[in-house]
Amino acid sequence: MTNPVRFLNNSLVSYFCATILLCSFVAVKVNAASLTVTDNLVLRDVDNKAVEHGFLSKKQTIDLTQGEHALVIQYKDVFEDLDMGEDRLVKSDYFVVKFVVTNQQELLLSTSKISDLASAERFAKNPELILTDEVKQELVLELETLSDYKLGLQVTKVVTTLATPAVNVQDNGTASMPDKQDFNSQVINKVDTVPMLKYWWQKANKSEKEDFLNFINKTEN
């Protein structure tokens, strides 16, 4: 005869385990959005991590958590060249798409309408992408050249390093903070200055650029 107490305990354990698994599954579904990338876009990196392509179908689908994301993408498609009577491969340089996932569940990243070879070549030089959710609502996205994106990462790393200088450990075992000016000079000497100047110039508004030009004029005089 089955022990009723043992049977009840086993039932309760099974119930709680099933509840925990169900809650975990629901939490993952709520916090993740499924992003589909159309077949004329090649997805290379997601948040600075390379994508393993393998045997992909025409539509590439990945899961993204809530928050900010950056995708490295290339446009690539084949069109008929009517003048030459042959197919032409059209592709863009790799570029970066940045956007924020909030409470969306289904996302689709696609190109603007490309109908022929001429429009494909124009698109390759100046890409325009559309990001929509499950109800066809467009989301805000930002496009950036890959070189500018990499430079931005370098700038962020330098700024973070300057903001948190390493602690010096002396011979006697005591710790001390380095001289701020010496530390800044050491870091700046390791940075390629010209790209950094270009980066901040692109980020500056009109007033800031005018102030900077005034500073240069005063410095030269």
TrEMBL record:
Ranges in a coiled coil: none
Record PANTHER family: UPF0319 PROTEIN YCCT
InterPro entries: UPF0319 (IPR018635)
Designated name of the protein: DUF2057 domain-containing protein
Residues spanning the signal sequence: 1-32
Keyword vocabulary terms for this entry: Signal
Family: Belongs to the UPF0319 family.
Superkingdom classification of source: Bacteria
Pfam hit, one: DUF2057
